[in-house]
From TrEMBL, chain A:
The gene is zgc:162858. This is Uncharacterized protein isoform X2.
TrEMBL record, chain B:
GO terms for cellular component: AP-2 adaptor complex. Adaptor protein complex 2 (AP-2) is a heterotetramer composed of two large adaptins (alpha-type subunit AP2A1 or AP2A2 and beta-type subunit AP2B1), a medium adaptin (mu-type subunit AP2M1) and a small adaptin (sigma-type subunit AP2S1). This is AP-2 complex subunit alpha. Keywords: Cell membrane, Coated pit, Endocytosis, Membrane, Protein transport, Transport. Residues 748-861 form the Clathrin adaptor alpha/beta/gamma-adaptin appendage Ig-like subdomain domain.
């Protein structure tokens, strides 16, 4: 996978993940072009389209569009299910996820994505394992008082 | 899930996000953001040390602002500080910021790499994963250099946690994609392959992506993965849906892993081992069988996951292309999907069937679905599905169904979406040519094409019909009659006028016997369209008219009158005026014999690949139409013309056809010799004025973003390092010209400077701007078109001949193939010095100017001294080192006559330009010059010392070089002796 974009029905970008090196200008151009293309499509249309030399796989969940760009030899249907699994993960973590959860906790959305996909490939497809990793991390932040190490944070400055 | 996990208390962040959301206008949002940025800036700059929490909060706010689409130019240092925090959330936010806002600032990269190194060695799996995620997200070359050696060890170590292994595998994959030269699996290969056997499904899922990528590049080293993959696949396929617990997805066991396994197998030919192959065939059959079973769930996720595996299995079957039974079964399965109610499945079935159509085993089976596909073309509501249907019709077309398919495609064209019309036109044109049994059908089809979709008929299409008509005398009369009829329509497309003009000009005599299409009728018909046409078409018509004078002497006076009219002979367009004048003169003074010779019928075109096919290939790129298809196309295209086609690069044929087909601007009669340089605009001399101003190149970021040439930061699909070395796909196939005789001289001009004009002739000016840092360099070439006519198929190739190749890595970014008259294009060349070298890389430039191929080669001014780092040293040190380099071969000396005035300041400037440090007060004789520097190559550093002794009386110099490497002394001495 080359990149994943989440954007709203109004065309606002909510999450972007790039797995190929691109400059900011190019990223903005791609985003603008794709958001426009995808939003212009009608509901019953197919979830795949050719775009430049990539394949775009997208699906709408409530007010959010999830949109992935994959390469010629990649599998469209399994990518569609990657999107779904990611939505399931967000849903399970936030409890009935909605767009607002992703806006206000964007960092969490990124962390969950990193556990699930890395470098554009599925890293861990088990819902249980991904959520376990995130939960552990959440616990870690709760149970790490100042005395964890000899160094207090300020000393680093 | 604990509620605390949400937001974890960064209240300030939540408030800020709310504020932004409440902004009523873009302006209000920007105002709020600027306020926040000012606040954060003051916090970061303030005297009071911020605690970790605040730092995390502000960094997170910056990240949010960046993700809103605003630029962020500070906060990187604070984010890096967070990396070394002991608190997980702070570290995590730090890493997130780095991952999203990578900055190639070398200072920071070192700090980031340090933090990563600490976390990798922390033995804390959560920290290790964070660090690995960061490397995988950034994937920069610097990170590859720092960690490509370490990560394979983590990946295969026995005590590494599963989750860390998963991250390590994909992290390594990302590094391999960016810097394949740095990721060396070597001793780890077999242990990595055996990860396919790992008990943990997650580890297998992650590792297999890495193995697939490595297998594509080194199939032999990884071939043991085939049998492991087959047995893993077989275990999954035969497992009950509950066996794999959480890896079962909507009753489908491990769909992601299954797809990846099937994908890996597509890197290899069918297994040779009979048992392995048997087991695999069994798997594939099971997958096909399962498709027929009733679904275990009504959820779309169930069917998607199941069908994802099915399509991947079909891809593998097609890849093997050796099991007729499986191929036919696959085809039948896809046939069912063609009528499925799910649009997605119909789309994929059409796509997949396209590849099946090219297999000899399944071609016939695919053809049985023709009615369904035609129906899809007519009724699908989604244009992307219709596009697939059109592709499939094209792929399944053969002699038996060509007439039907072409007719359907033509009728579809009438209502087709604008976005796909041009491609459809090309396809119809190709099919009509490829499967033409009688040429009248071919001519009819193309003329229909022009009638229905004239705007989308590119030049290649109408060039081609003319090539074919000219080459086949059995169709010429029919063609003349048909175009004559087509031109009767009151409104006909300009492309029709072009074809009509050309064909009647050549073969109008074949229908002139009929009084309804007598010469004068033909002429009047053509001329009735004249005033509605564009200049190029009018130019073509003028040529048709002069041909008429030769074919039909009775039209001479009428045509001469037309040519003589003010609207022709005084036309404001130079091309039209010139044609009118020349044709008029020619018709008045030339004898009938001369006229007949000059205006003879066009000779047959040389056999060549269809220019249309080349165009389609260029348009779609490989993959859209299978290679077989194209090869077949070439073959058959050749047949049509009655002989084996000449194979050439795509563009050479297009370029050639531009030159020899009736390109309106090319001189049809050959009266004009060579390109007219005098046509250059008077401003041509000032063409390069802007080259060396700031606007040309962004000087600020120039050094900062210098990077090894293997990383391409501006192309969507990063090219492999080897790719861009070779000629770009649009290269003209003629051999590169030998370097110009003056190219050594041009090279010498740039030894002591980096910017300037490298080359200039009447057509072209080449400017250079370059910058070097350590062993890396970047060069900007500016190609200026000094004429008023565009350069087409402009291509450049940079090569490192012979011994230079292993020493210098030179990569040229592609350059625009078209340079408008008076315009300038820029090309970036990245250079990496691997070892010391003597020769210069060659730059070959080819383009067509007014049809004539221009081909010139120059030496790129990359000389070894460009990689000098100046070294300051005191007199004592200098002489000590001088003495250390006392072996005879380490020294090179030349005594030569001054060729320029011996001005001290000029000499100093040149020595500084050379790149060494000019050392004052070292030589006891103040007249002499002494320099020191170190040449940075990737392989080694070569220290060099220089002494230049001018003798003003004799107008001579003595130049002495000492270096730790003899070849370097010698080369520097050669280069420098030419400078003074």
């Amino acid at each position: 996978m080359q990149f994943m974009l989440l954007f709203s029905r109004q065309g606002k970008l909510r999450l972007q993940k790039w797995y190929v090196p691109l400059c900011d200008k190019e990223k903005k151009k791609i985003t603008r072009e794709l958001v426009q293309t995808v939003l212009a499509r009608k509901p019953k249309m197919c979830s795949f389209l050719e775009w430049r030399d990539l394949k775009i796989v997208y699906k709408r969940y409530a007010s959010l569009y999830f949109c992935c760009a994959i390469e010629d030899q990649d599998n469209e249907l399994i990518t569609l299910e990657i999107i779904h699994r990611y939505v399931e993960l967000l849903d399970k973590y936030f409890g009935s996820v909605c767009e607002l959860d992703i806006i206000f906790n964007f960092e969490k959305a990124y962390f969950i994505l990193d556990e699930f996909l890395l470098g554009g490939e599925a890293q861990e497809t088990s819902k249980k394992n991904v959520l376990k990793a995130i939960e552990q991390a959440d616990l870690l932040q709760e149970s790490q008082p100042e005395d964890w190490g000899g160094l207090a944070n300020d000393e680093i400055l | 899930m604990p509620a605390v996990s949400k937001g974890d208390g960064m209240r300030g962040l939540a408030v800020f996000i709310s504020d932004i959301r409440n902004c009523k206008s873009k302006e209000a949002e920007i105002k709020r953001i600027n306020k926040e940025l000012a606040n954060i800036r003051s916090k970061f700059k303030g005297d009071k040390a911020l605690d970790g929490y605040s730092k995390k909060k502000y960094v997170c706010k910056l990240l949010f602002i960046f993700l809103l689409g605003h630029d962020i130019d500070f906060g990187h240092m604070e984010a890096v500080n967070l990396l070394s925090s002991n608190k997980y959330t702070e570290k995590q936010i730090g890493y997130l910021f780095i991952s999203v806002l990578v900055n190639s600032n070398s200072e920071l990269i070192r700090l980031i790499n340090n933090a990563i190194k600490n976390d990798l060695s922390s033995r804390n799996p959560t920290f290790m994963c964070l660090a690995l995620h960061c490397i995988a997200n950034v994937g920069s070359r610097e990170m590859a250099e720092a960690f490509a050696g370490e990560i394979p060890r983590i990946l295969v170590a026995g005590d590494t946690m599963d989750s860390v292994k998963q991250s390590a595998a994909l992290c390594l994959l990302r590094l391999y994609k960016t810097s394949p030269d740095l990721v060396l699996m070597g001793e780890w290969t077999s242990r990595v392959v055996h990860l396919l056997n790992d008990q943990h499904m997650g580890v297998v899922t992650a590792a297999i992506s890495l193995i697939t990528c490595l297998s594509q590049k080194n199939p032999d080293e990884f071939k043991t993965c085939v049998s492991l993959a087959v047995s893993r696949l077989s275990r999954i396929v035969s497992s009950a849906s509950t066996d794999l617990q959480d890896y079962t997805y909507y009753f489908v066991p491990a769909p992601w892993l299954s797809c990846k396994l099937l994908r890996l197998l597509q890197c290899y030919p069918p297994p040779e081992d009979g048992a392995v192959k048997g087991r695999l065939v069994e798997c594939l059959e099971t997958i096909l069988n399962k498709a027929q079973e009733p679904p275990k769930s009504k959820k779309v996720q169930h069917s998607n996951a199941k069908n994802a595996i099915l399509f991947e299995a079909i891809s593998l079957i097609i890849h093997y292309d050796s099991e007729p039974n499986l191929l036919v079964r696959a085809c039948n399965q896809l046939g069912q999907f063609l009528q499925h109610r799910e649009t997605n499945l119909r789309y994929l079935a059409l796509e997949s069937m396209c590849t099946l159509a090219s297999s000899e085993f399944s071609h016939e089976a695919v053809k049985t679905h023709i009615e369904t596909v035609i129906n899809a073309l007519k009724t699908e509501r989604d244009v992307s599905v219709r596009q697939r249907a059109a592709d499939l019709l094209y792929a399944m077309c053969d002699r038996s169904n060509a007439k039907q398919i072409v007719a359907e495609m033509l009728s579809y064209l009438e209502t087709a979406d604008y976005s796909i019309r041009e491609e459809m036109v090309l396809k119809v044109a190709i099919l009509a040519e490829k499967y033409a049994v009688d040429y009248s059908w071919y001519v009819d089809t193309i003329l229909n094409l022009i009638r229905i979709a004239g705007d989308y008929v590119s030049e290649e299409v109408w060039y081609r019909v003319i090539q074919i008509v000219i080459n086949r005398d059995d169709v010429q009369g029919y063609a003349a009659k048909t175009v004559f009829e087509a031109l009767q329509a009151p409104a006909c497309h300009e492309n029709m006028v072009k074809v009509g003009g050309y064909i009647l000009g050549e073969f109008g005599n074949l229908i002139a016997g009929d009084p309804r299409s007598s010469p004068l009728v033909q002429f009047n018909l053509l001329h009735s369209k004249f005033h509605l046409c564009s200049v190029p078409t009018r130019a073509l018509l003028l040529s048709a008219y002069i041909k008429f004078i030769n074919l039909f002497p009775e039209t001479k006076s009428t045509i001469q009158e037309v040519l003589r009219s003010d609207s022709q002979i005084r036309n404001s367009d130079v091309e039209l005026q010139q044609r009118a004048v020349e044709y008029l003169k020619l018709s008045s003074i030339a004898s009938t014999d001369v006229l007949a010779t000059v205006l003879e019928e066009m000779p047959p075109f040389p056999e060549r690949e269809s220019s249309i096919l080349a165009k389609l290939k260029k348009k779609k790129g490989p993959g859209a139409v299978s290679v077989n298809e194209l090869e077949e196309g070439k073959r058959e295209g050749g047949e049509l013309n009655g002989g084996g086609g000449e194979r050439g690069g795509d563009n050479s044929t297009i370029a050639a056809s531009n030159a020899s087909t009736p390109s309106p601007s090319a001189d049809l009669l050959g009266l004009r010799t060579g390109p007219q340089v005098s046509a250059a605009p008077p401003s041509a001399g000032s063409l390069l004025v802007d080259v060396f101003s700031e606007a040309g190149v962004n000087d600020d970021g120039f050094l900062r973003d210098l990077e090894p040439p293997t990383e391409s930061s501006d192309s969507l699909l990063a090219e492999g390092p080897g790719d861009s070395d070779s000629a770009p796909p649009s290269a003209v196939s003629e051999d590169a010209a030998p370097p110009l005789p003056e190219s050594n001289e041009l090279l010498n001009k740039f030894v002591c400077k980096n910017n300037g004009v490298l080359f200039e002739n009447q057509l072209l000016q080449i400017g250079i701007k370059s910058e070097y840092r350590q062993n890396l360099g970047r060069m900007y070439l500016f190609y200026g078109n000094k004429t008023s006519v565009q350069f087409v198929t402009f291509t450049t190739t940079v090569s490192c001949p012979g011994e230079l190749h292993p020493q210098l890595n030179v990569q040229a970014k592609p350059v625009e193939p078209l340079i408008e008259g008076g315009a300038q294009v820029q090309q970036v060349i990245n250079i990496e010095c691997l070892g010391d070298f003597c020769e210069a890389p060659l730059l070959n430039i080819k383009f067509r100017y007014g049809g004539a191929l221009q081909n010139l080669s120059l030496k790129l001014p990359v000389t070894i001294n460009k990689f000098f780092q100046p070294t300051e040293m005191a007199s004592h040190d200098f002489f000590q080192r001088w003495k250390q380099l006392s072996q005879p071969q380490q020294e090179a000396q030349k005594i030569f006559k001054a060729s320029h005035a011996m001005d001290t300041e000029v000499i100093k400037a040149k020595l500084l330009g050379l790149g060494m440090a000019l050392l004052e007060n070292v030589d006891p004789n103040p007249e002499n010059f002494v320099c020191a520097g170190v040449i940075q190559t990737k392989a080694q550093q070569v220290g060099s010392l220089l002494r230049l002794e001018p003798n003003a009386q004799a107008q001579m110099y003595r130049l002495t070089l000492r270096s730790s490497k003899d070849t370097v002394s010698k080369r520097l001495c050669e280069l420098l002796a030419e400078q003074f």
